[in-house]
Design brief:
Elements lengths: L2 E4 L7 E2 L2 E2 L1 H17 L4 E5 L10 H17 L4 E4 L6 H4 L11 E4 L9 E3 L2 E6 L4 H8 L7 H14 L6 E6 L15
Parallel strand pairs: 1-4, 4-5, 5-6, 8-9
Antiparallel strand pairs: 2-3, 7-8
Helix pairs in contact: 1-2, 4-5
Length: 186
């Protein structure tokens, strides 16, 4: 299986007052060309499609157009999760019927436990979540940070593994052992 993985598009971002959308659209065109040239079986977009939770109308239109192009026009299955810069409810608008076209968009923790199966692979799409969401979902007051919350999250996913399938986790989090640097936002 050939998978194209991408993330952190941050559509709607400006840099010192400069609109990055034309550059982002050129990057999208290049990504689309790679998907065609490599004949990928699926495209993963692992969060932060938008640069902010309340994305501007032109950013929403751009992302919608990009998703439509990849999925409806080009026929690529899309496996998409919300990131910490996305507004999960806004991004999920219309997602009830997306899967009928091979567009799987997960924006809520509970969706992560139902895998998407493509060929011989199960994909677990884990959107960005705050510890309180896991605390409420699992009814466990001990889940006070992402590290403790990931233990039951992963355990529940593993319980859903089909033994005859490969398993891929798509997430938008810092990984164990990673480092974090401060970044100034303007």
């Amino acid at each position: 299986m050939r998978i194209l993985h991408t993330a952190d598009w941050h559509i709607g971002r400006t840099l010192s007052g400069f609109d990055l959308l034309p550059t982002q659209q050129a990057s999208f065109a290049a990504l689309r060309q790679v998907a065609h040239d490599q004949n990928v079986d699926a495209i993963i977009i692992a969060g932060d499609l938008y640069d902010r939770g309340l994305a501007a109308e032109n950013a929403v239109n751009a992302v919608n157009g990009m998703m439509r192009t990849l999925n409806r026009d080009d026929g690529f299955p899309l496996l998409v999760i919300s990131g910490n810069h996305d507004s999960a409810p806004r991004l999920a608008t219309g997602s009830e019927w997306y899967s009928s076209t091979g567009f799987y968009l997960h924006t809520r923790l509970e969706e992560a436990f139902t895998p998407v199966t493509i060929g011989d692979t199960q994909f677990f799409l884990l959107p960005y979540f705050e510890p309180a969401m896991a605390r409420n979902y699992f009814d466990d007051d001990q889940l006070t940070n992402i590290g403790t919350a990931m233990v039951p999250v992963i355990a529940k996913m593993v319980a859903a593994f089909a033994p005859d399938k490969k398993h891929v986790l798509v997430a938008h989090f810092f990984a164990a052992g990673s480092t974090h640097t401060a970044r100034k936002r303007r």
